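QA checklist item 7 of 12: single-chain prediction sanity check.
[x] sequence parsed
[x] length recorded as 439
[x] structure emitted
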Amino acid sequence: MRVLFTTWAPGGHLIALVPLARAFLAAGHQVRVAVPGGCAAAVARAGLMPVPAGVLPRALGVPPAVARRSRGIWPADWPVRPRVLGPEQHGVLRALGDQRVAIAEAMAQGLVAYARCWQPELVVHDASTYAGTVAAAALGVPAVGQLWGSTALPRLDRQRLDGPPLPGYARLMRRYGADPAREPELWLDPCPPSLVLPSPERRLPVRFVPYESPYESRYEPRYASRYEPPYGPPREAPYESSPEAYEGAYDAAGEPSCDSVRPGPARICAVWEDAAGPPEAVRTALRAAEARGVEVVRLGSAAQGRPPAGPLHRLLPGCRAVLHQGGGAAVLAAAVAGVPQLIVAPGPEQQLNGVRVAITGAGAHTPADLLGGSPRIARAAGAQLARDLFALLEQPSYVVAARALREEARSMPGPEAAVARLTGRPEGTRGIRKAPHAR
């Protein structure tokens, strides 16, 4: 079977597709990954074959200005209740939707031309790459959308989330002889069921698999498998919990157990994706944790010039909490590792993820907008964040809920089961229905 994957960006967009693409290859299918020119190197590093699909103007790679200026706290279930959103919030979503339509327009000609030449039998695209649905509709083959870890499916291709298709998207579909109402036949969802907001879309749960390139798989992070302090000797008077919390620190294979750690400094991981680094309140909270002997392993821009600590999923089994911004990959990595989460969410989708994690009891959530303002407000917010961190370390209920979420995440079917489902193999369930051929 020929399967064409497509996305418009590296990072989380591509990473969500890699495990399924590798599973198709392992099952003997042919796989190509169509991306704009700037993404080809990332596809090759993942061990997959890139093919060109247009060139994106640089301006399309950054969020619209209205989205960057967006402030405030969003309703906890806004994707499934769009009528609770105000005009400004709908304006943000419309700007993001129009941007993704513009990305689809930039990719569509090259993507459809390649698809007509290669003749795939299935198109798999990440949830924001609308050009994938366009190409599948143009060829009359099924389209499957891959979610990347959001606890909901925001339909930014629709007017006000639940209305008709955006005008630009409708025009693009008609340009290739397709019905604007055409949607993916199935959505692949890596979120554990207790995190997911219900929606009418047809979803197939698929277990989250941490991404590693062939290059990364040969790299052993210095601190992923032992508990020596990552940045020098431990501080005096290390922060410890009861002795019972450290029983069984290593599993039968000699690797760190997700259930506990040995006596010594508690370790937390701080992950920050924004290039500017974390706000002062977050820095204050991390300094407060270190002052009490907690080891803080920093990734991304939170590293502040320190040595790299290795991939997040390799570090989490040695941590007792993780602070991050609520991105899908971080939420799922922590869920699979069974680590309590403190989410400091800057945007609507991250806030949504933070609320859902907090509802399960596996973590706590703070909108980033509550951390700004004067130095006095930042200090107070930092002190509250520090208390939230210590609560994750001290209160057993967070660990219990995180372990329950871990078991739920690990019990989900893997990418191999999704391949069986999508190809209609006898050992799997029925395959997806064939799409009607386009005009």
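[x] summary fact logged: Residues 87-118 form the longest helix (32 residues).
[ ] second reviewer sign-off
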